[in-house]
Amino acid sequence: MNFKKNILCIGAGYVGGPTMAMIAHKCPQYKVTVVDINPVRIAEWNSDHLPIFEPGLDEIVKNIRGRNLFFSTEIEKGIQEANIIFVSVNTPTKTFGAGNGMAADLQYWEKTARQILKSAKSSKIIIEKSTLPVKTAQAMERILTHNHQKIHFDVLSNPEFLAEGTAIRDLENPDRVLIGSHQTPDGIKARDELVEIYANWIPPKNIITSDIWSSELSKLVSNAFLAQRISSINTISALCEKTDANVTDVARAVGMDHRIGNRFLNASVGFGGSCFKKDILNLVYLCRNYGLHEVADYWQGVVNINEYQKERFVLNMLAAMFNTLAGKRICLFGFAFKADTGDTRESPAFFIANRLIEEKVELVITDPKALKNAKNDLDEFKEEVSFVEDPYKAASGCHAIAILTEWVLYQNLDFEKIYRSMLKPAFIFDGRNIIDHQKVFEIGFNVYPVGKPSLTHF
Ligand SMILES: NC(=O)c1ccc[n+]([C@@H]2O[C@H](COP(=O)([O-])OP(=O)(O)OC[C@H]3O[C@@H](n4cnc5c(N)ncnc54)[C@H](O)[C@@H]3O)[C@@H](O)[C@H]2O)c1
């Protein structure tokens, strides 16, 4: 079959896989290939067990894989065949040298640029899908234009705003698609070619354009604002716990002001995921570089509150359980950083598990989708941690349960049965405020929500 466009994506991760699946699904006239240096990941994309869990993804991939969606390790061949290349490689926080712990580690990104330069035999549009700070498109352009073959590359920024757990819905109906380009005739031509792809299913009013740097920066700022809301309500949860106010009631009253809105106002054990912390730290690093220390401190505060909230949760557990956790058996309900994903990167559960292990707790971890990642994350603690898929079996014989991921299944458990199987006094620490606190209190539990009065039998 003759395809109208040949699209390549380098990086078959949480972003590359679902975004390309959506383009291929909506545009049968295009051939979409996703490549990765990790052969295991590619083999999983080609199997019945996709490497990531995302509601609705399996159906789409299984329908179009081999038709106009392909997963491969042949990066060079992919580059040569494609007219349009999305780059969606990882951009973690640097763990060495200048900017250690703050700046983005751009080594994967730069390697990709060099690989494109080495393999390309014709002109191409390169689209930065990864979240990248500090005018990275410019750096990529410099690498790419340093070629002797007179090949022309246009670099565009097209940050991805999907949220894990709702990626398919977000890709199908995005609030907006943002495309940053040079405002030159070549830049605008390349931009229009990308607009044409999205216009296959997205209304024109939702496809917005800007210069490249504004586009790159918008992604960092979006994540910073989202995380800021969580940290803001979490600061109030601490105050509510001291004053017997109820953070859910406060959030409801505040959120009903349409200027504020009610989304992202759930107090919890803290935010996680691979993006929020890393992107805010990028923003902080960027501000420091420009000498804007007050601005940097302001955004750093959002991250600091998140660390504080996780630590506060552990200290609340310790205080409630008679100031000693050593030798106690505690079950963590959920290890994913949020519901509907198996992703555990930067999960609050990881921090809490580590802190509880420090307190010499015997941990039992249960999660419907994230146990494989949890086992990898806690590989060094084989003695201290066990992993049990069934939440009833996991909680049996424990002193306490800590709910760390807002899986709906935890709302619908038979807590009477769980209570009967636990050691007494039995505790529940609801780090997501998702269960019926009064009901489990009446069953016999001592209940500790976030940001509201605890319900205890003492
Ligand atoms: N995860 C999210 O929710 C999300 C949302 C929006 C944006 N982003 C951004 O998208 C980017 C990718 O994130 P992700 O979560 O998909 O990461 P990921 O780690 O899941 O996937 C990245 C993939 O790139 C591959 N890779 C690295 N270097 C390569 C190279 N030189 N050639 C080919 N493949 C290479 C890795 O093997 C990996 O499979 C990041 O910049 C992230 O900030 C992520």
Q: Could you outline the blueprint of secondary structure elements for this entry?
A:
Blueprint: E1 5-10, H1 16-26, E2 30-35, H2 39-45, H3 57-64, E3 69-72, H4 75-81, E4 84-87, H5 107-119, E5 124-128, H6 136-145, E6 153-157, H7 167-172, E7 177-180, H8 185-198, E8 207-210, H9 212-243, H10 247-255, H11 276-289, H12 293-320, E9 329-333, H13 348-358, E10 362-366, H14 371-377, E11 385-387, H15 391-395, E12 400-403, H16 415-421, E13 427-430, H17 437-443, E14 446-449
Parallel strand pairs: 1-2, 1-4, 2-3, 4-5, 5-6, 7-8, 9-10, 9-12, 10-11, 12-13, 13-14
Helix pairs in contact: 1-3, 9-11, 9-12, 11-12, 12-13
Bound molecules: nicotinamide-adenine-dinucleotide (NAD).
Nicotinamide-adenine-dinucleotide binds at residues 10-16, 36-38, 41, 75, 88-91, 108, 111-112, 130-131, 160, 162, 164, 274-275.
